[in-house]
């Protein structure tokens, strides 16, 4: 008990609270600027932590991390441009709600779902970290492959207009993810002899091009359309009765994000798409998903923000960073004297409990700072639309270039923007392209590693373990159910067609 009280005292020190406010607000702004995100934010603020105390420095970085994940939803809803890849799934229902004049409601649901998911993941982190870390170890390459295959079913759900068009875009995204070095042999693929392409294509330039730049092209091509104006928005949090009606969706998305975040190598973007795919199958309002349904925002935002807490489970308990962001956080911990691993809870228990309390305070600060942050974006969007569009293009290219410092990423963003604009004009959905790009690398690498384990026998993957068998069985049921539903809808449409006999 003395350790816990001391940890709470460290977390509530004025230096730590100030670092939380500054980091969270800066994270929200950075996350909302298209092309920037958690990695850029942490890169900017990491040098400022040198000389700070351990808890104060980690409070600043955790605030930037959590704030940036939430901030990406603001521009995703307002202008159909996700500030971060984690918020790409939020555009599916967030922007349609904006077009329907329900932008305040959409922002309210995104904010509350982000807060709920973040807090619930913190609670899970505090009470279940050792047990979840042990269970996450059971997920090897084959189990992760089965899980990613389930997430790929999301392509069918977001391609309601034409499944074939959705599959085409999904394959384009999957192909883009394969450019570069082979994950197993290291051989170059689809580089056409270019040294700069050997490092592959990263997600941020593709997302910037697919959403931000293509949206700019669409807006300029329809500049006389009054519907293309950037909306003025205010935050309206859902009332108690409203969120009580959707508490199952909130809990389900948060649990999915907490579970996915505990698996090394997945990340918030994958968690958001998996949660959205689950909502397409289980939400009582699934027929309205993709048309401006809050359940879609809840699924995405509660899940990707739940990752912020649970991603620390493998990092703290096992010393295994789950993605680039947690790898940077782990490096910062080592710099400030925190040694992640199995001995951390024993050797530095007070520090660990302080980090738990900081995570909770950061989520509360995010909820409090959401209204002035949205007000700041609303003020910026009152400027002439041309200036705003020019700023979005500038920040998009800055974000695309600063991730790796590779000038090729600017070209990738521009070419992807032109391709995405052409696809949108032909009524091809862009969501499957991003899904293929997000899930493609992990799908390929886990499959290749699994085949190496099973000596090339694909069918042995299906019976590798109880977890993989359960996941593959669920995948088969979903495929059968999807095909059966499509056939039933086709027959119903055929019966309803008028006869000309």
From TrEMBL:
Signal peptide location: none
Segments forming domain DUF112: 17-435
Pfam families associated with the record: TctA
Keywords: Membrane, Transmembrane, Transmembrane helix
InterPro entries for the chain: DUF112_TM (IPR002823)
Transmembrane segments: 12-45, 57-79, 106-128, 135-158, 164-180, 192-213, 255-279, 316-339, 351-369, 381-401, 458-484
Name used for this protein in its record: DUF112 domain-containing protein
Organism, as annotated: Billgrantia bachuensis
Taxonomy of the source species: Bacteria, Pseudomonadati, Pseudomonadota, Gammaproteobacteria, Oceanospirillales
């Amino acid at each position: 008990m003395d350790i816990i009280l001391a940890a709470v005292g460290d977390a509530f020190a004025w230096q730590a609270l100030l670092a939380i406010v500054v980091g969270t607000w800066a994270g929200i702004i950075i996350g909302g600027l298209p092309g920037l995100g958690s990695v850029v934010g942490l890169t900017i603020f990491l040098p400022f932590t040198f000389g700070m105390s351990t808890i104060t420095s980690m409070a600043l970085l955790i605030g930037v991390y959590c704030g940036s994940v939430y901030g990406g939803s603001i521009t995703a809803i307002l202008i159909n441009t996700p500030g971060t890849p984690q918020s790409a799934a939020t555009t599916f229902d967030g922007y349609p709600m904006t077009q329907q004049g329900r932008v305040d409601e959409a922002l309210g649901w995104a904010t509350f779902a982000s807060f709920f998911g973040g807090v619930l993941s913190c609670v899970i982190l505090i009470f279940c970290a050792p047990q979840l870390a042990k269970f996450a170890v059971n997920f090897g390459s084959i189990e992760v492959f089965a899980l990613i295959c389930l997430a790929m079913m999301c392509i069918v759900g977001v391609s309601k207009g034409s499944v074939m068009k959705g599959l085409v875009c999904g394959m384009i995204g999957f192909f883009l993810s394969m450019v570069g070095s082979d994950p197993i042999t290291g051989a170059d693929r689809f580089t056409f002899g270019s040294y700069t392409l050997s490092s592959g294509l990263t997600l941020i330039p593709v997302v910037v091009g697919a959403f931000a730049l293509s949206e700019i092209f669409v807006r300029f091509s329809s500049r006389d359309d009054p519907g293309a104006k950037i909306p003025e928005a205010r935050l309206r949090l859902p009332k108690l009765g409203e969120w009580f009606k959707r508490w199952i969706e909130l809990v389900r998305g948060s649990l999915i994000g907490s579970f996915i975040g505990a698996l090394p190598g997945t990340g918030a973007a994958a968690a958001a798409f998996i949660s959205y795919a689950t909502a397409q199958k289980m939400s009582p309002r699934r027929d309205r998903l993709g048309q401006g349904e809050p359940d879609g925002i809840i699924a995405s935002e509660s899940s990707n923000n739940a990752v912020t807490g649970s991603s620390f489970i493998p990092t703290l308990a096992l010393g295994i960073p789950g993605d680039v962001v947690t790898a940077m956080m782990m490096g910062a911990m080592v710099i400030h004297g925190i040694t992640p691993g199995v001995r951390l809870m024993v050797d530095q228990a007070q520090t660990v409990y302080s980090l738990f309390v900081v995570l909770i305070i950061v989520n509360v600060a995010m909820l409090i700072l959401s209204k002035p942050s949205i007000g700041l974006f609303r003020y910026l969007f009152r400027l002439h639309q041309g200036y705003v569009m020019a700023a979005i293009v500038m920040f998009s290219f800055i974000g695309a270039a600063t991730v790796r410092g590779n000038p090729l990423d600017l070209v990738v963003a521009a070419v992807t923007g032109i391709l995405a604009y052409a696809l949108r004009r032909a009524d091809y959905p862009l969501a499957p392209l991003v899904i293929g790009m997000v899930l493609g690398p992990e799908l390929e690498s886990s499959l290749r590693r699994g085949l190496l384990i099973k000596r090339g026998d694909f069918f042995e993957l299906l019976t590798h373990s109880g977890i993989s068998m359960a996941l593959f069985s669920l995948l088969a049921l979903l495929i059968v159910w999807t095909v059966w539903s499509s056939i039933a809808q086709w027959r119903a449409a055929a019966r309803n067609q008028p006869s000309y006999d």
